[in-house]
Design a protein that fits this description.
Length: 220
């Protein structure tokens, strides 16, 4: 008698720095909370600490330095080819600090996701925590979303929400939001791998009645 195992989803993670979200995904896969295998971690920076996290977990890594390419299009084309070599089911941006060309996004659309430290559509771009404070927002958080050609504008999959407290600093807010990120990114990837949510007609479509349905918002 032969035993058959369901093939685990293949995930490629792109980073530029610390990689704490990568770590959350590595840990969730190791705990079997996501039936997936991170098959490759790619960084555009050789000094990204996340590369060490990947190596410690036995995950193959690659560095593709954007500064060695003539322009953004050339880098993105090489990056897309490198990603495709490992035939991933999902391409996960985890603190990958590059604006991607529409050509790159189109190549992976529907299986390309990102995490952003704000409750999109509020505060796309950088310095989101200081901007949430300046705007006197009462709530702040993080969003996992499908990537579409317009930066930080793709449909949300899951958001993590926290209250902005009195006397809050951008640093304290950032720390709480980061904790939320580490919760919602594994939840989002698990939902995608389970087929509970998918990208359709420019929207994040949830399968109704799917027991693997993950919450679309969680609150700190
Ligand atoms: C996170 O805040 C994420 O939302 C943003 O970049 C940061 C990456 O942090 N896209 P880390 O490298 O995962 O610690």
């Amino acid at each position: 008698m032969t035993t058959q195992t369901t093939p685990r989803a293949r995930v490629c993670v792109l980073i530029s720095g610390n990689g704490s979200n990568l770590q959350a995904l590595i840990d969730a896969c190791a705990r079997h909370e996501i039936p997936a295998e991170i098959i490759q971690v790619i960084s555009n920076r050789a000094d990204a600490f996340g590369l060490q996290r990947a190596q410690k977990a036995g995950i193959p890594t690659a560095v593709l330095d954007h500064r060695t390419f003539a322009d953004r299009a050339a880098f993105d084309a090489a990056l897309a080819d490198l990603i495709s070599q490992s035939q991933p089911d999902w391409v996960v941006l985890a603190g990958f600090m590059r604006i991607l060309t529409p050509e790159f996004v189109q190549r992976f659309i529907g299986k390309l996701i990102n995490i952003h430290p704000s409750l999109l559509p509020r505060h796309p771009g950088l310095n989101t925590h200081a901007r949430a404070l300046a705007a006197e927002d009462t709530e702040h958080g993080a969003t996992v979303h499908f990537v579409t050609p317009t930066v930080d504008a793709g449909p949300a999959i899951i958001q993590g929400v926290c209250a902005v407290q009195a006397e809050e600093s951008a640093e304290s807010l950032q720390a709480r939001v980061h904790q939320l990120e580490h919760q919602i990114y594994p939840l989002a990837l698990a939902a995608l791998v389970a087929g509970a949510v998918r990208y359709e007609h420019g929207q994040a479509q949830w399968a109704s009645g799917n027991p693997a349905n993950a919450p679309r918002q969680i609150f700190a």
